[in-house]
From TrEMBL:
<feature type="transmembrane region" description="Helical">
    <location>
        <begin position="373"/>
        <end position="391"/>
    </location>
</feature>
<keyword id="KW-0813">Transport</keyword>
<feature type="transmembrane region" description="Helical">
    <location>
        <begin position="12"/>
        <end position="35"/>
    </location>
</feature>
<dbReference type="InterPro" id="IPR020846">
    <property type="entry name" value="MFS_dom"/>
</dbReference>
<protein>
    <submittedName>
        <fullName>MFS transporter</fullName>
    </submittedName>
</protein>
<feature type="transmembrane region" description="Helical">
    <location>
        <begin position="309"/>
        <end position="327"/>
    </location>
</feature>
<feature type="transmembrane region" description="Helical">
    <location>
        <begin position="41"/>
        <end position="62"/>
    </location>
</feature>
<feature type="transmembrane region" description="Helical">
    <location>
        <begin position="339"/>
        <end position="361"/>
    </location>
</feature>
<feature type="transmembrane region" description="Helical">
    <location>
        <begin position="255"/>
        <end position="274"/>
    </location>
</feature>
<feature type="transmembrane region" description="Helical">
    <location>
        <begin position="286"/>
        <end position="303"/>
    </location>
</feature>
<keyword id="KW-0472">Membrane</keyword>
<feature type="domain" description="Major facilitator superfamily (MFS) profile">
    <location>
        <begin position="1"/>
        <end position="395"/>
    </location>
</feature>
<keyword id="KW-1003">Cell membrane</keyword>
<feature type="transmembrane region" description="Helical">
    <location>
        <begin position="219"/>
        <end position="240"/>
    </location>
</feature>
<dbReference type="InterPro" id="IPR011701">
    <property type="entry name" value="MFS"/>
</dbReference>
<feature type="transmembrane region" description="Helical">
    <location>
        <begin position="139"/>
        <end position="164"/>
    </location>
</feature>
<feature type="transmembrane region" description="Helical">
    <location>
        <begin position="170"/>
        <end position="188"/>
    </location>
</feature>
Length: 402
């Protein structure tokens, strides 16, 4: 294996931020122009559903590919595919008569690229960043991602106000961001580590990957917690616009403030772990997620906009801390030959249940309104208790069998 000798890698840090900024800006423009052209959100729902299926399918195979081939080449190829997809669909798209075909095609291309580039980039980090520097690197990276989520809507709103760009222009901006990301990844000095996984076939590689994870309770715990919190994160994102429209006068500015607080909380969580000197520990995940559950319970029982605003910030803070810590724990506990498959399984758990959670909580929110936050907080507390109980029993049973 290539030894990690640096605590920082600027291209590996900036590339995800730039591509995320372009993608979020494009989605902002897509949502605006599609609803403006069609008068409803039906086409957006179709696009999101197709994208979810593509991501789920990609998660099944990405780990095998990442562990069997050069990870830098996978990331570079995925970014190049996204560049070409944006250019081709920009040429195909008629901004004056928006149709589904080019947008659905681009969604498939971008989500295929994302399904392979994200786990490959995460798997490169332990090979390029020292053990002591990993949590800080992951924290800075996630902070930049949250910053992109804040900047993109502000930049997009400014561009719309100036009437400079149509949907094709937003698409070309996205393509430019992928081009810059492609060049940054290309500049990284990386040599593929040698390992036995490169000699395995697809079926055997999948089976050995799942077996590897199953033998390690801490990795299973991270996967299950990741699936749980991401389902509930999606549910919270559904409740926020509902509350604004039904309880707080339908003011779009108030909804924007909630999203900004969610992202600002994420940035503060990233800053916290950037400054942290201790190694990540599983107990810290339970403490942060318990705090998140408490914030949701208070906001659900006390229907007040300012309470909801604070709860959004706290939830974003706790979610960011867990996400950064979970990625770092995964990188530290997983052997290099299995990193791709491990991240594939982790993202599979997230992508598999999040759409189902959104579907279910969409109906629950219509039924119980702001009290949905109480249900979400309660489910988070119950889930944490059950997962921790299962983990302790599994550890105890394995000790007894030794």
């Amino acid at each position: 294996m290539q030894r990690a000798t640096k605590a920082f890698n600027l291209p590996l840090l900036l590339a995800p931020f730039i591509s995320r900024l372009g993608s979020t800006l494009y989605l902002f423009g897509l949502n605006w122009f599609v609803v403006q052209a069609t008068g409803n959100a039906a086409l957006l729902g179709v696009i999101q559903a197709i994208g979810g299926v593509v991501l789920f399918s990609g998660d099944l195979l990405c780990g095998v590919v990442v562990d069997n081939f050069n990870r830098k080449r996978i990331v570079v190829s995925a970014e190049l595919l996204s560049v070409l997809g944006c250019l081709a669909c920009a040429w195909w798209l008629d901004p004056l008569h928006i149709t589904a075909a080019p947008l659905v095609t681009l969604t498939v291309i971008l989500d295929v690229g994302l399904a392979f580039s994200l786990p490959a980039a995460k798997a490169m980090i332990p090979e390029l960043i020292t053990l002591a520097g990993r949590q800080r690197f992951n924290a800075v990276s996630n902070t930049l991602i949250d910053l992109a989520d804040i900047c993109a809507p502000l930049l997009g709103g400014g561009l719309l106000a100036l009437h400079w760009l149509n949907l094709r222009g937003f698409l070309l901006l996205n393509g430019t961001s992928f081009l810059l990301s492609f060049l940054l990844y290309l500049s990284i000095r990386y040599q593929r580590p040698t390992g036995e996984s490169s000699q395995l076939g697809v079926k055997e590689s999948l089976l050995t990957g799942w077996h590897y994870v199953w033998q390690r309770p801490k990795l299973i715990e991270v996967i299950v917690l990741g699936g749980l919190i991401n389902v509930l994160y999606a549910a919270v994102r559904l409740v926020l616009p509902y509350d604004v429209n039904h309880l707080y006068g339908g003011d779009s500015a108030r909804y924007s403030y909630l999203l900004v607080m969610l992202a600002l909380g994420g940035i503060l969580g990233g800053v916290r772990l950037t400054l942290a000197r201790q190694e990540p520990h599983r107990r810290q995940n339970y403490a942060d997620l318990t705090l998140a559950a408490g914030a949701l319970l208070v906001a659900g029982l006390w229907a007040n906009y300012w309470v909801l605003l604070v709860a959004s910030g706290l939830f974003g803070f706790c979610y960011s801390c867990f996400e950064i810590r979970a990625i770092t724990i995964t990188q530290n506990l997983t052997a290099p030959d299995y990193l791709g498959r491990m991240f594939g399984i982790l993202f599979l758990a997230i992508d598999a249940f999040q759409p189902l959670g959104s579907f279910v909580f969409g109906f629950v929110t219509d039924w119980v309104a702001n009290r949905t936050l109480v249900i979400i907080g309660g489910l988070l507390v119950l889930g944490l208790a059950l997962i921790n109980h299962w983990y302790q029993r599994l550890i105890q049973s394995r000790r007894l069998t030794k």
